[in-house]
Amino acid sequence: MAGASITRLKRVAALALVAGVALSSGLAGAQQPAAVPAKAAACAACHGADGQPILPVYPIIAGQTSRYLYLQLRDFQEGRRVNEIMAPLVKDMSRDEMRELADYFSKQKPPPQKFAADPAKAKLGKLKAEETLCTMCHLGGFAGQNEIPRVAGQNHDYIVKQLSDFKTKKRTNDAGTMTSVANTLSDEDIENLSHFLVGL
Question: Which pTM does this prediction carry?
Answer without folding.
Answer: 0.81
